[in-house]
Amino acid sequence: MREGRPPARWESRAATMKLNQNILLLGKKVVLVPYTPEHVPRPTLRPCRYHEWMKSEELRRLTASEPLTLEQEYVMQHSWQEDADKCTFIVLDAEKWQAQLGTSEESCMAGDVNLFLTDLGDLTLGEIEVMIAEPSCRGQGLGTEAVLMMMSYGVTKLGLTKFEAKIGQGNEPSIRMFRKLHFEQVSVSSVFQEVTLRLTMSEPERQWLLEQTSHVEEKPYRAGASEPR
To answer: Is the pTM of this model over 0.85?
Structure first.
């Protein structure tokens, strides 16, 4: 193997991480769609929802995020769509999406949910994070369903068997949510002020997860054309 070249199994898994570019996952409260340029529109078209969200100091604190310029938002979207170690879905409010008549997905956006491959030596481990950034969508279970749907996708499509979540110590709602989803705390970092929780998918946990997401429908996706059916 050449020095610096990732092993073949990494390249194969990296390709798998991009499979979500052509699918839509329909749940009861949320719809998960791929992250496309439509979700970060140029200001000449309409305000960028991501950019407006991240003006919130509280949201940046809870998500350990830095404020970005609009140009940085566009670069990030392209990076996250193309990076081989990330799998990202935009979280849409299913109620708004079902009711839309020719409106954009961007107007239904609630946040995002992500999986990262963080350990080259263990491609069955995925770090998961979720952000419900739209204030009107919080506290309604959208984040819980989005995480369950993403975990199910990770298990059935990406071959993941372990999940980690790194959450700021002050983000109690998120910590409680992951604990309800059977995650257990494994460490605390005083340096980064974050808690790490982990879930290993034993067979009972796998069956529980698949039962929790048995209602989810997978549909073909074409950017800008994910109309309710």
So the answer is: no
